[in-house]
Design a protein that fits this description.
Blueprint lengths: L1 E5 L4 H10 L4 E6 L3 E3 L2 E6 L11 E4 L13 H20 L5 E5 L25 H15 L8 E7 L1 E3 L6 H10 L15 E3 H13 L5 E5 L7 H12 L10 H14 L5 H8 L7 H7 L8 H13 L1
Parallel strand pairs: 1-2, 1-5, 2-4, 5-6, 6-7, 7-10, 8-9
Antiparallel strand pairs: 3-4
Helix pairs in contact: 2-3, 4-6, 6-10, 7-8
């Protein structure tokens, strides 16, 4: 098949190209044109009318969540919402049969109320990143073509990791590599992640099979705690597992002081480091006709961490 991928030069895009290039013809859409291994041609957003007929559109391009809050709100909406509208309108006017939009679990909730986040939860995004993704979802849902002619998939992945990953997981890797003890061992949180191998498996199925259109959350089957991450990174690096189980009340006092004095460990950061964020993937597995994802959470995480070393 002929597949158009936006945001191809990002970490997720590069992994998808590597996986799809042997069986499909890949075209790219990015802010600049040029050449890229495995891609037949790269077009800019001004060249939409020049793109040849494709079968599938995978929309990855977007403005990532800025945890430092340095970005202006309108930047998220210009990229995550307006560009998605423009691309989806183009898709509706072409012969392409499938549109796969990468949204985010943050389009639903900044924190998970209850034990697990499902697709049935009423979306209440917090902040411009999640809000801009949700607005793009609403536009797509309100303008879908006949599902017998065109299929549309809105994917809401939890944090994706894999080769070329850049983000909080890399910071944790550097933390352990330096031999710094993890001081939050008393907090045993549960978080959902998405390994690249499982994401690739999902995309192959969506591209090649007749899967029902809809919104699907994406995650590995098992949750991983920060303690698990520290242990896994330590094992890969062949370093002692250094986890301190400091009393929670004392840690909370440190965080409160950090908030007052503008220190690195404050109440907000402590919350993000220790909160639960569990995402259900049951609807997606049912649509794909599988009972479990091919790669377990720890196996996928171990593979990602090993790639950091290389």
């Amino acid at each position: 098949m002929k597949v158009l991928i936006t945001g191809i030069q990002g970490f997720v895009g590069s992994n998808i190209i590597e996986s799809l290039q042997e069986n499909h013809i890949i075209y790219g859409l990015d802010i600049i044109s040029g050449q890229l291994r495995g891609v037949s041609n790269i077009y800019t957003w001004n060249d939409l009318v020049s793109i040849p007929d494709v079968d599938v559109v995978i929309h990855l391009a977007g403005k990532a969540h800025d945890v430092k809050n340095n970005s202006l709100a309108n930047e998220y909406f210009e990229i995550n919402t307006e560009l998605t509208k423009r691309l989806y309108n183009w898709f509706l006017g072409t012969n392409a049969r499938k549109f796969i939009f990468f949204s985010s679990v943050k389009a639903v909730a900044d924190i998970v109320e209850g034990e697990i986040l499902t697709e049935d939860v009423q979306p209440r995004p917090v902040g411009p990143y999640g809000e801009s993704k949700r607005e793009a979802e609403i536009y797509i849902l309100n303008n879908q073509a006949d599902t017998k002619v065109k299929q549309t998939y809105i994917l809401r992945p939890s944090m994706i990791h894999g080769k070329g990953n850049k983000g909080n997981l890399n910071l944790l890797f550097a933390f352990v590599k330096k031999g710094i003890p993890w001081p939050l061992g008393a907090f045993d949180n549960k978080r959902s992640f998405t390994s690249m191998d499982n994401l690739i498996f999902i995309l192959h199925n969506l591209i090649e099979k007749d899967i029902e259109s809809g919104i699907y959350q994406v995650a590995d089957d098992e949750t991983v705690s920060t303690r698990d991450l520290i242990s896994t990174i330590s094992e890969v690096l062949q370093k002692p597992i250094r986890i301190w189980n400091i009393n929670k009340s004392l840690i909370n006092l440190f965080a409160l002081t950090g908030t007052c004095l503008h220190l690195p460990l404050n109440k907000e950061r402590l919350k993000k480091l220790t909160e639960n964020y569990v995402v259900s993937n049951e609807k997606l597995k049912k649509a794909l006709g599988v009972t479990k994802m091919p790669v377990s959470a720890i196996v996928g995480m171990t593979k990602s961490i090993k790639s950091f070393i290389k």
